[in-house]
Predict the structure.
Amino acid sequence: MYRSWIDEERGFTLWFTGLSGAGKTTISEIVEHELKARGRRVEVLDGDIVRTNLSKGLGFSREDRIINVLRIGFVANLLTRNGVAVIVSAISPYKEARDQVRRRIIDFIEVYVDAPLEVCAERDVKGLYKKAFAGEIEQFTGVSDPYEPPAAPELHLKTSEEEPQESAQKVIEKLEFLGYLKTPAEIRDFDRA
Ligand SMILES: Nc1ncnc2c1ncn2[C@@H]1O[C@H](COP(=O)(O)OP(=O)(O)O)[C@@H](O)[C@H]1O
Ligand SMILES: [Mg+2]
């Protein structure tokens, strides 16, 4: 049976990309909470968790990082086309991999979670920058491994200039603007008008 998204909530993938400590997990948790409060089905794919199951065994070479992103993208696409609100928070440093996912997922919203390296290192949420600068961690994004910023993200959040709540609010506003937060009843009413 064919059911178009007209009768359903519209799925989407919010893809948070940025350096470690930029704020991806923090913002995604607030957005997840807000979407659930609106009755949406939400799935979060967080890089740290994904690496302990879906991508277990992958390392941090360019090739492995790209495979990691493509795997997350594969799952995100399955969920998105079934009306789920998907939130991905993963460093996803390579533009090529992100763009490949963008081409696969129709409803793809790329959010660049941006904070200067110095700010991320100062926050040092997980104590990893200290180790990376001491040379104890190889291939650490931003320190000894590349990060390619998005050229044209749907949203660019500068987290060193605002509070997490403000950043999350901008995400919700963007979803509203793009029409992803309409209820099925609102969509039907619009159709009849
Ligand atoms: N506008 C903001 N958005 C998100 N996080 C922020 C913001 N301002 C400050 N922070 C802080 O930055 C840190 C980000 O950590 P985290 O969300 O774990 O980053 P990531 O998941 O990108 O590695 C948290 O301690 C958070 O409180
Ligand atoms: Mg995180």
Observations:
- The longest strand covers residues 108-114.
